[in-house]
Amino acid sequence: MTSAGCSLLTPLSGYSSGDDALAPAAEAGPTGERDGSSMAPGDADPHAAADATLDAAADADASTDGPPPSPNLYADSSFETSCAPFGGFQGDVTRDKTAHTGSWSCRACTRPTTTDYFTADDGSFHPGPVVGATYRFEAWVRSAPGAPAAPDMLAFLRTANVSGQFTKVEEDVNDIAPLTSTWQHVSVTLKVTAPAERIGGFVGAAHAPDACFLLDDVVLRRIQ
């Protein structure tokens, strides 16, 4: 990376990375009959009472969907101001006018001296991951105009210690389908089980001559 806390990664080649409970009631006929039973004028309709109970239960379920999602930890998720906190590890990251939303994305390109892989990496920028909590990293990626598509891409979410030497603590990874000129959504989720100083996400690709990819609309948030 170009920023102070560089990434230490395992080479990318190491990852491959019933029956209805309540059937509809039959419509009442002219004599008030329903489901073969008779109803005298003025009798209470037991089916109406059951329907009301089900409607109340549905309203209760709708009101207990849980709290809204926690905020996105990236302040400038669509890179309208800069690519920060993302930088390149064994590659270079610059802004690009081909955007998924807004006006900008970030373009990550391999360096001529790179021999294995390169990344667009946030440097595990966010402090204080909570042990027992679950976090999700999301992004949109595609091939970069005018450059060969980056091969064998992966999305990572990791915790790390950055005091002294950078040390990865925990990590999860997901494969990314081969890139095209169409934006695709990628995500990876990690439950934190060990104390660590920082958490962050990044996208990596195997080196190929002049290969690049675009990254946009990044999200990092606690989901549980």
How far is it from the N-terminal to the C-terminal residue, by CA?
30 Å
Structural class call reads: mainly beta
Provide the CATH top-level class of the domain at 68-222. Mainly Beta
Quaternary form: single chain
Rounded mean pLDDT score: 80
The CATH topology of the domain at 68-222 comes to Jelly Rolls
CATH hierarchy: architecture of the domain at 68-222: Sandwich
CATH superfamily of the domain at 68-222: Galactose-binding domain-like
Number of distinct helices: 1
Uncertain segments: 1-11, 13-41, 43-64
Strand content: 25-35%
Compute the number of strand runs.
11
Question: What is the alpha-carbon Rg in Å?
Answer: 26 Å
Into which percent range does the helicity of residues fall? under 10%
- What general form does the structure show? globular
Write the layout of secondary structure elements.
Layout: H1 46-62, E1 87-89, E2 91-96, E3 105-110, E4 117-121, E5 126-127, E6 134-143, E7 154-161, E8 167-175, E9 184-191, E10 198-206, E11 212-222
Antiparallel strand pairs: 1-4, 2-3, 3-11, 4-10, 5-10, 6-9, 6-11, 7-8, 7-10
Could you describe the 3D structure shown?
The chain is mainly beta and 224 residues long. The chain has one helix spanning 46-62, and strands spanning 87-89, 91-96, 105-110, 117-121, 126-127, 134-143, 154-161, 167-175, 184-191, 198-206, 212-222. The strands form two sheets. Strands 1, 4, 5, 7, 8 and 10 form a six-stranded antiparallel β-sheet that branches. A five-stranded antiparallel β-sheet has the order 2-3-11-6-9, with no helix packed on it. Strand 2 and strand 3 form a beta hairpin. It is globular and about 45 Å long. Residues 1-11, 13-41 and 43-64 have low confidence and may be disordered.
